[in-house]
Design goal:
eleven-stranded mixed β-sheet, 16 strands, globular, binds adenosine monophosphate, binds magnesium ion
Length: 391
């Protein structure tokens, strides 16, 4: 491995993250131009940036992350003029999507031009490109004057970083600079869409949702690799999806309600309806929680308490609404059940938190998988190795 000698990592803080000043970013831009690495905030997660046209810089990114070098990097640009030199052509769907969702949390796959080194694309003839909307990211890329390859700024196998402190934990001593722009907005990685074929294909769900894309194109396809565990011999179109991404140190189980359970919860006269109504009245919560959320929390708590009794250290991932329902010792709220935005925003920080807490088992509530929920459940399912308990 190269790039292993300890580097003195500089950390700078952007004063007003909505309006970064050029003086604050010039040194970072210079580092990128000179082939060095700079971590910076984007609207999705923190990125670990290097010059996308410099195969050496890409090698340094792989080394700093400990990432397999066949897992391609996304090239980040700051304006439309910077796209043409990177690609052989811009398919119509690419134009439509760029017009509608750039700058923003959307990555597109294009046929690559000759100036993009295979060292950046993991040996592929295609290149992934994104134009971030975060003002710090955008201005930094513009000042660097080169497209910036920027995978998430975490050690491979750890949750993506959503604050500069997360980046510091993983990258201090390995890269030239960390630009601190506070906590990111969205919290999960960009949507990846392949626009090289006849129909756009979603390779990774994110904040630009399937519903939003369907509205533009009638219907888009979804790569099977994001729907469930991969069968042997099936190759995902986004090479990164084949890696068992992040696995928490504790054994994570997602608790999901069966369709029949949900149906019964809302069917007056059913045994479950009566039982849950009684439990909710007894706990004085009937005014506060819907039966689904109440029952979800009850089921997660039951499992967690059962495991706690064996002497294991157990934690639960709960929500603002359900937090009070838990009797288990270690609980962390991931956000509001009523707001997928808040869950996406906190997801990786909560997973990092559990790694630090050193629990043996984690039980998590699950969430609707429509809209942004699709990205949330994709990341949670991967973290759980698709270990799901249906109740
Ligand atoms: P990250 O930069 O960590 O958000 O991950 C980037 C992901 O984008 C990779 O893991 C791949 O799955 C995907 N990706 C990047 N380039 C390509 C490409 N040319 N074709 C398909 N997927 C890509
Ligand atoms: Mg990543």
């Amino acid at each position: 491995m190269e790039h292993t000698e300890k580097i003195k990592t500089k950390r700078i803080k952007i004063e007003d993250v909505r309006h970064p000043k050029d003086e604050e970013l010039l040194e970072a831009a210079q580092i990128l131009r000179n082939g060095g690495l700079v971590a910076f905030p984007t609207e999705t997660v923190y990125g670990l940036g290097g010059n996308a046209l410099d195969a050496d810089a890409s090698r340094k990114i792989y080394a700093a992350k400990g990432r397999p070098s066949d897992n391609p990097l996304i090239a980040h640009i700051s304006c439309m003029e910077e796209l043409a030199p990177l690609v052989k052509e811009i398919p119509e769907a690419g134009r439509v999507l760029a017009e509608k969702y750039w700058p923003g949390p959307l990555t597109m796959i294009f046929p690559k031009s000759d100036i993009v080194p295979y060292g950046t694309t993991g040996g592929l003839d295609t290149v992934a490109v994104r134009m971030p909307s975060d003002p710090v990211a955008s201005r930094l890329i513009c000042l660097a004057g080169v497209p910036v390859a920027a995978p998430s700024a975490n050690t491979s196998g750890r949750p993506s970083p959503t604050t500069a402190d997360h980046v510091w934990q993983d990258m201090n001593g390995k890269i030239e600079m960390v630009v601190d722009g506070g906590a990111v907005g969205i919290g999960v990685e960009s949507t990846i869409v392949d626009v090289t074929g006849p129909v756009p294909v979603i390779l990774r769900p994110g904040a630009i949702t399937q519903e939003m894309l369907d509205e533009l194109f009638g219907r888009v396809e979804i790569d099977p690799a994001i729907l469930g565990p991969m069968k042997d011999g099936v190759r995902p179109k986004a090479p990164g999806m084949k890696y068992k991404h992040y696995a928490p140190k504790g054994d994570l189980t997602l608790v999901e309600l069966k369709d029949e359970t949900i149906e019964e919860l809302y069917k007056p006269g059913s045994a479950l309806y009566s039982r849950v109504s009684r439990m909710m009245t007894d706990s004085g919560k009937s005014w506060k929680l819907d039966p689904e959320s109440f029952y979800m929390a009850w089921a997660v708590n039951e499992e967690a308490v059962r495991m706690e009794k064996t002497g294991a250290r157990v934690g639960v991932i709960c929500t603002e609404e359900t937090m009070d329902e838990y009797t288990v010792a270690v609980k962390r709220s991931i956000g509001k059940r009523s707001s997928a935005d808040s869950v996406a925003h906190n997801l990786y920080a909560v997973l990092r938190d559990f790694d630090d807490l050193g629990v043996d088992y984690i039980y998590s509530e699950s969430f609707s998988d429509s809209d942004l929920g699709h990205a949330i459940m994709n990341r949670l399912n991967k973290a759980a190795g698709y270990h799901i308990l249906k109740v």
